[in-house]
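User: quick one, fold this
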Amino acid sequence: MENFYINIKASDEHLRFVFMTGVTKFSKVSVFSKLNNLRDITMSEAFATMYGYTQDEVEHYFGGRIDALADKNKVDRIEYRLEIQKWYNGFRFNEEAQTVYNPVSLGMFFIENGKFSNYWFSTGSPSFIFKVLKQQEFDFYKEIKDEIEGVILDSFDVTNMSILPLLLQTGYLTIESGSMMMGKPFYKLNFPNYEIENSFQAYFVSSLEERNPIKVTSEIAKLQRAMLANDTTTMHEVLKSHIAAIPYANRSHMEENYQNIIYSVFRLLGAEIHNEVHMNNGRIDTVIVNRDHIYIFEFKMGQSAKVAIAQIKEKGYATPYLSDGKPITLIGINFSKKKRNIVEWLEEEMS
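Assistant:
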C-alpha cells in the first residue's frame, strides 16, 4: 500500500478531491505516514449521514414501496416500519448525529420483496474478527457495557489490534451515546440493529464452540420453543450441550466463557436479557424477561446450586421484578472445573 499512497501524495497538485474508504482506517503507523495530508471524517458529525439513509430519506424515497409491501403482507404500516427500523437502522457515526440505515441491507430487502434477512452480514466472512476475539480472550459482553475513551477508538494499529476499534470500524458495533468526562470524550458502543446482533451472536457462539453456525441456530430454535413452553428441563439440556461443545483449549477462563455462551444463546432468542444487573446490595448474574415469564439466574463455580438460590433470596434479586405481575423462576447453576460443565441445576418458583 505504501507505493499507492506515495503516488497519490506525489500527484497532489493535479488532484482537487480524493476520497478513500475501506473496512478499517490506518493511522499512526508507518504505512499511512506516506499519505499524511488527508482529513479523517470517520466520526465527523458533518459527514455522519452521508453514506446511509436517514429515517426522513427512507420515508421520502421509499415510503410508497414500504406501504405497498405492508399491504401485500397484510400487516399494519406503522408496525412494519418499526420492524424495518429494528432490522436495518441504527448505525451512528457521531454521538450527535442521526442514525442511518445500511443501504445494502435496505436495498436487498426491497429486491427480495420485503423478506427480512441478514443481507449485509452475509456479504463478508467475520472469521477474522472472531479469531482476534479468541486470541485476546476478550470478555465481550463485559467490555461493551462500559464507556470507553474516545482516543482508543481514534486509531488502528495493524501491529497491535484492539478489538473494540476493530468492531466499530468494521460495522459490528456502533456509537450508542457519548459524553464528556474531565474534558475527554467517552463513548458507549452497542450493536446497531437486529441484523447485526443476531448474526454476530450466532457466529460468536459457534466460534467459542468451534461448531458450524447452522448447528448452533438449530439448537437455538429448540431452546426458543422450550422458553415459550416454560420447559426448563429442555433449557437445561440445551445449555449443557452448548457448554460441552467448548473445546478444552478455549477453557482457560471457563467461568467467563460459560457466561458468554449462556448470554449469547439467550440473546439469539430475541429475549430481553440483562447481564450483571447491579443493585444496591449485590449484582444479579443474569435476568431474562420473556413475554409471560421472568427467569433470574445465579452462577457458581465449584460451590452448589443451593447456595446460588439462597443468594438470590437473601439479596432480594427478584424484588425489582415483582411489580411486572409475571411468574418468576429462580435458577441456581453450579459449574464444575473438573467436569467443565453444569453439574447442578436447581430451580424454584417465587410464591
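User: anything notable?
Assistant: The longest helix spans residues 55-72.
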